[in-house]
Amino acid sequence: MTRLDALEAQSIFIFREAFAQLRKVAMLWSLGKDSNVMIHLARKAFFGKLPFPVMHVDTGRKFPEMYTFRDQYAKAWDLDLIVEDCPPIESTDPTLPPAARSAARKTEGLRMALAKHGFDGVVAGIRRDEEPTRAKERFFSPRGTDGAWNVQEQPPEFWDQYNTALTPGAHVRIHPILHWTEMDIWTYTRRESIPIIPLYLSKDGKRYRSLGDQDITFPVPSDAATVDEIIAELAVTKTPERSGRAMDHESEDAFERLRAAGYL
Amino acid sequence: MSALPLAPASGATPIERELLRIVIVGHVDHGKSTLVGRLLHETGSLPDGKLEMLKAVAARRGMPFEWSFLLDALQTERDQGITVDTSQIRFATKARDYVLIDAPGHVEFLRNMVTGAAQADAAVLLVDAGEGVREQTRRHAFLLHLLGLRQVAVVVNKMDRVGFDRAVFAAIESDVKTYLGSFGLMPSAVIPVSARDGDFIAERTARLPWYDGPTVIEALDAFTAPPTLSALPLRFPVQAVYKFDERRIIAGRIESGRLAAGDELVFEPSGASARIRSIEAWPGPAPRTAEAGQSVGITLDKEIFVTRGDVAAHGDQRPRAAKSLQARVFWLDQTELKPGDPVVVRLATAAAPGVVSAVASAVDPANLTTESQATLGRNHVGEVEIRLRRPLPVDPYHFNPLTGRIVVERDRRICGGGIVLHSAREASITEEKRGPVVAVDSAVTLAERVARHRHRGAVLWLTGLPGAGKSTLARALERRVFDFGGAPVFLDGDTLRTGLNSDLGFTADERSENIRRVANVAAFLAQNGHVAIVALVSPTRADRARAREVGGTLFHEVFVRASLEVCEGRDPKGHYARARRGEIANFTGISAPYEEPVEPEVVVDTTGDLTASIAALEVYLREAGILFPLEVDSPI
Predict the structure, then answer these.
(1) Mean pLDDT of B84-111
(2) What would the mean pLDDT of B486-509 be, rounded to a whole number?
(3) With the C-alpha atoms ordered A240, A242, A244, A246, is the resulting torsion angle positive or negative?
(4) Closest chain A residue to B415 measured between Cα atoms?
(5) Residue A31, Ramachandran bin (φ over 0: left; ψ between -120 and 50: alpha; else beta)
(6) Do A20 and B85 touch (CB under 8 A)?
(7) Boundaries of CATH 3.40.50.300 in chain B?
(8) Which chain A residues are closer than 8 Å to B254 by Cβ?
């Protein structure tokens, strides 16, 4: 098996475990490269059509290209799409820095959406190599009724046996591409011809490596105008993927506080 | 602007470098995080600005910079000064990519160490040169072994603190090798380093002129990627049965073996069978065959009842649908495991409720002391017998590591895991073994025999190529145990073929029967307090797994290892020469395969001198508690 084959097989296994063991599952679709790979993997796992809805927790501040992409591919991929709005900024922790408050809106939006639909399993496309606190995640991450992540008391997870026991009202986050790297995502995107939002490709010497809200995401200098060129660029870069995300850099612990509170 | 559908890859080389997962374990404060920080730095794997950022953070907090800061990403960790959870970090050498799993050394977080180590392909065991082997060193090493890791490099850190003293290093090296050897683990290298200063991480420095082994990076690059289990019999645990459209797709991951359209499958525990009509795939094209590691879906030629947890196999080589099993279990929960506890046993995709019927040989791997009470405390390892309310399709671990390991849940929480030693179709292992016959007890109790012989009963099953030195080693050991006042019995394969097994030839079936008989004789002797030393080529894993089932916990597999060239060069009975001339059919090593043990208790390499081989075996027998120390009273 090649490296991508092995990654794919593990992700498919995780998708099927989630669907078999949880009552009501939804997948978060952020429209980015990672969640598009996830949708592709889920279609492989379930032989073409997703047996659960995808949910876009919408801050209303995404790039126009992202909304276009969403509407086009929700149809092309025959997705059961749920769009949920986020509450106003005033409802977030005022002690967080501004960009983190913006991200915290999404946490609150997610919490409300979960409560509204009664999902007990939420599939999310985070990866360990993105950020040190995400490196600590399990494939199946049980959350409290408030959505919070207790990193100190995570249950053991080994031999592909996942924790799915829940207290009523709580949920499990499922991370099928936790073990992938940014490079894996792009080489797989190329191998499987998965569509992407053109914002990832260089225009006027800049491109987005990671896509979030318009006001807190910035392009990085790059001349990579094709997927092949992105792959070549990643092979030599030493700049972190989320360097264009303001909230990661406002203070040294902002991101970890966000995650403990239930951010992705 | 609309999204851009991609054209298929055109000519560009795909970057699919080999990936190996390494776990770093060891006692708390022996310098794991420092080693990891150093490895990242030395391999040029740090993101731009990361080092500067952390140095700035340290300065802001008024602390000197430490390499370990790189890993201490969480606020809570920085406050406590210990690594709380498994963190995974990537780096690359010229040879390949690595994921480094940093497992916590603190005893409180053993569940995290297990979580990390269970995902690894190989391990680095870290020991502080100033402190030597400590409890967590021993506990982690023991768990690595139980978790199925066989490739371990030992790194002796902080050599700068002991003045790069060769004697200090040699003493630790000897300690570690003895301990690992007691459960059959052989380190691939023992490397003296200073992670803080960078000696022998990537660079050979002048401060260790007496050391000529590999650097840490060289040792990592020397590990091999684990093979998939395609060569073993098929095990296809069912994850789910989907009926999204007109197809009824049975989905799952092939854990071992291969399957192909047209194959006749048997599903355990029901025993129902059907043929594979198709292998399904989206977006296509559908493959005709699939093998271990792949997540697939199949359709069948008839509508038999199949459900999640069933295991599909080929008819003649299926797992046992067991109602009871015995497993070597490590326990991670605060509350001890005891007989009578209701549990759920999870095995691949199956789960069955059951009750713990016995706990034996509980041991604390930190010091290998055996505890007398029949319960299993936190972080201890013991042999647990579980009666199941529903049958589970199970293999002995030695036959198949993926379908021979279990996870134990209590109160719906994952509390432990273990490897299956045996299983039985009936609710009690002994009941099944006994059948309708009523056994008559011996007039002499086992305790009396053990007290007299000063050893416990054991089956030492010496397997290896013809000419590897099994009989020589067995005879020498027999003499040694006898001279201590013990009661050893030597069972030689060839000798038994002149009597008990004189009706058997050398076909696969006859060899299996030969082994079955010897295994039963040996087990009977061991149950009566003898050390039964069996010297038998026993070339197949399946036959040895059955011998282990018969011998149970008394069984110890000893792999007598020597290369084919060495064995053929010795050729004590002239058999190799005759086999080469075609005069002997099915001769192991020449015209029949020898399957090396996957997880023997002991490996003895006989290429070197015999005295060392016997000494290694004797060390094992003492460590395993079979031979008692000379100076103390027997424990029972």
Answers:
(1) 75
(2) 85
(3) negative
(4) A156
(5) left
(6) no
(7) 19-222, 446-623
(8) none
